[in-house]
Design goal:
About 5% of the residues lie in helices and about 75% in strands. By secondary structure, it is mainly beta. The protein has one domain. The protein has a 6-stranded antiparallel barrel.
């Protein structure tokens, strides 16, 4: 079973900084679970709280944009770009999160050693064929 975090229609509530680490908080993230490729092959959609953290990170446009729902975007890790982020993410050197929200505002966060942490219990939303 493959899992992936789809950025489209996930929500970001806030971005916080703890020393040199930036944490992006998703109170609702769309998580796909599929037998093949998440978001393409048959499977199910779940909602789960998620935190994405980056060390030595820079943040642009966060104050104006949040909270908000994602309309489009990508997460690039070590030069590979994802709209559906594979879970677990694994170890990477660098990450760049670029988001366009439904109101037209944007958020860019760039840093090192990205980590995605799933929080609490996932809630099943629907099955797709």
């Amino acid at each position: 079973m493959s899992n992936g975090l789809e950025l489209y229609q996930s929500r970001i509530s806030h971005v916080e900084r703890h020393q040199d680490t930036v944490i992006i908080h998703f109170p609702h993230a769309s998580i796909y679970r599929a037998k093949g490729s998440p978001g393409r092959d048959p499977g199910s959609t779940w909602s789960q709280e998620v935190e994405l953290s980056l060390e030595d990170a820079t943040v642009q446009n966060a104050a104006n944009a949040l909270p908000n729902m994602i309309d489009d975007g990508y997460f690039e890790v070590d030069g590979e770009r994802y709209e559906v982020i594979p879970l677990p993410l694994g170890e990477h050197e660098s990450g760049h999160l670029h988001l366009l929200f439904t109101d037209g505002s944007t958020l860019d966060v760039e840093g090192k050693h990205p980590i995605i942490r799933l929080i609490g219990q996932a809630i099943r939303l629907e099955d797709f064929l």
